[in-house]
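Audit log entry. Action: structure prediction of a protein-small molecule complex. Ligand: flavin mononucleotide. The ligand was supplied as SMILES and no pocket hint was given, so placement is left entirely to the predictor. Protonation state taken as written. Sequence taken verbatim from the request; no trimming, no tag removal. Recorded inputs:
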Amino acid sequence: METFHTIINRRSIRKYKFKKIEDEKINLLLKAAMYAPSAMNLQPWHFIVINSESVLNEIVKSIPHAEMIKQSGNAILVCGDSSLEKNESWLIQNCSAAVQNILLTAYDMQLGSCWIAVHGMPDVVNNVVRQFSLPSNIIPIALIAFGYPEEEVKTEERFRLDKIHYNKW
Ligand SMILES: Cc1cc2nc3c(=O)[nH]c(=O)nc-3n(C[C@H](O)[C@H](O)[C@H](O)COP(=O)(O)O)c2cc1C
């Protein structure tokens, strides 16, 4: 039940100690991402690791609601390759599974993380495409802030019987 414990206890962390994460740890996060399920196992994702202070400062101009990454000092931009996965819905679902694997693995490594919206916000998507000179087939899906947590977040009970349906609505 270790996985269950991680799923239940992972929380979005928005306050961080500014500290670089070692490359080996970042590679574990990326490995976890690459083991996510993907339709027809196309693995249509790319990851931009962001840990340079100047790029972090720039990205806050592209994604104004990503201020927390100036504190976390580390972020990963998860992108989908629309030339590999032509079904946009599946592209987003595949990349979202990769994002969740990163969030859960970060928690396992005693790191905090937070999913920051990119896809679905056209102005933000355009800014990110411009900032990173993304090729036309590369679609930014989400930014993940991660780092050493400076807060502990608890949550309410979320298990709700009224959300569950057996055999019919
Ligand atoms: C698609 C998506 C977009 C999100 N975007 C943001 C965001 O831009 N900023 C933020 O602080 N949190 C963002 N979150 C995190 C949610 O706010 C968070 O998951 C939710 O409040 C539940 O809290 P928990 O992650 O601690 O369980 C996003 C989550 C998802 C799935």
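Audit: result stored. The chain has six helices and five strands. The chain has a mean pLDDT of 97.
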